Every structure is written in C-alpha cells, then in structure tokens.
Amino acid sequence: MLGDELRKARKAAGVTQEQLAFDAEIDRTYVSQLENDKKSPTIDVFFRICDALGISASTLIASIEVRRRTKKAGKN
C-alpha cells in the first residue's frame, strides 16, 4: 500500500525516482524497493521523502488509510 501511494505522490510531484532519491538523500534503488513494497522506510526516511515531495507526512498517511479502508470494504 505504501509503495503505490508513494509512487502516486512522486509522479504527482513530477519527479523521477533518481531526483527523489537525491533530494531525500537515499539511494535510487531504495526508492524502487519502497515503491514495490520490498522495504519499509524508517520514520526519518519517511519524513525526508515527504519533504522532498513537498507533501506532509500526514497527507501521505491519509491516502494510505483511505486505500486500506477501501480495500477492507471490498472484502466484506
């Protein structure tokens, strides 16, 4: 879930994985792993990513919560 929302936010910001990685001071392959739900960021990295994307952490978390609720509702 985080990966999909992170990818959406990155694309909405109009930045590449490489640019996001540079701005957040992380490796580009790590951005890819996050977007593919292969890794989970620390809270520090999460905030750096959000800062680099120009969005609040709460905004990204809220989009994940909406997606989670929607997914849960579809199972019932």
Task: Describe the structure concisely.
This protein has 76 residues and is an all-alpha fold. The protein has helices spanning 2-13, 17-24, 28-35, 43-53, 57-75. The mean pLDDT is 95.
Write a structural description.
By secondary structure, the chain is mainly alpha-helical. The protein has a single domain (2-70), classed as lambda repressor-like DNA-binding domains (434 Repressor (Amino-terminal Domain)), CATH 1.10.260. It is 76% helix and 0% strand. The chain contains five helices and no strands. It has helices spanning 2-13, 17-24, 28-35, 43-53, 57-75. It is globular.
Low-pLDDT sequence parts: none
Q: Assign the structural class, choosing from mainly alpha, mainly beta, alpha/beta, alpha+beta, or little secondary structure.
A: mainly alpha
Number of domains: 1
Helix proportion of residues, in percent? over 70%
List keywords for this structure.
76 residues, mainly alpha
Per-chain topology:
Elements: H1 2-13, H2 17-24, H3 28-35, H4 43-53, H5 57-75
Helix pairs in contact: 1-5, 2-3, 2-4
